[in-house]
Amino acid sequence: NFPDDPGVQWDTESVASILLQHIEVNGINLVVTFDAGGVSGHSNHVALYAAVRTLHSEGKLPKGCSVLTLQSVNVLRKYISLLDLPFSLLHTQDVLFVLTNKEVAQAKRAMSCHRSQLLWFRRLYVLFSRYMRINSLHFL
């Protein structure tokens, strides 16, 4: 019901319902999601944010379940990798994660499990992107 296709709009209530069920069944106490810009503008990413935002604003998340959102940045900051670190350190409002080399390797291994997603341009993204090194998150 949720094809990975930026041309297909996902129903916010349906996504929210499935997310809430997954959160409750698995006892999840922290949800990390995209921001309103979907980080890359991908409509499916935006739909996930909208669903989590709905759950949060309607008070449907279980007590103690926090939400953090990734921060969308311009394309220059997105691809300068570690050169973005000083700017991120100076301008982060809430939480800043800097991944270790081991965590970067783990993230790359996870991406390689999704071969249909790991196309040539995403390989470049993984190589140069700040999001493999730096994740700036904001509380919803």
Automatic annotation (TrEMBL):
GO molecular function: N-acetylglucosaminylphosphatidylinositol deacetylase activity
Superkingdom as given in the UniProt entry: Eukaryota
GO biological process, any: GPI anchor biosynthetic process
Enzyme Commission number(s): 3.5.1.89
Family, as annotated: Belongs to the PIGL family.
Name under which the protein is recorded: N-acetylglucosaminylphosphatidylinositol deacetylase
InterPro entries cross-referenced by the UniProt entry: GlcNAc_PI_deacetylase-related, LmbE-like_dom_sf
GO cellular component terms, semicolon-separated: endoplasmic reticulum; membrane
Top EC class of this enzyme: hydrolase
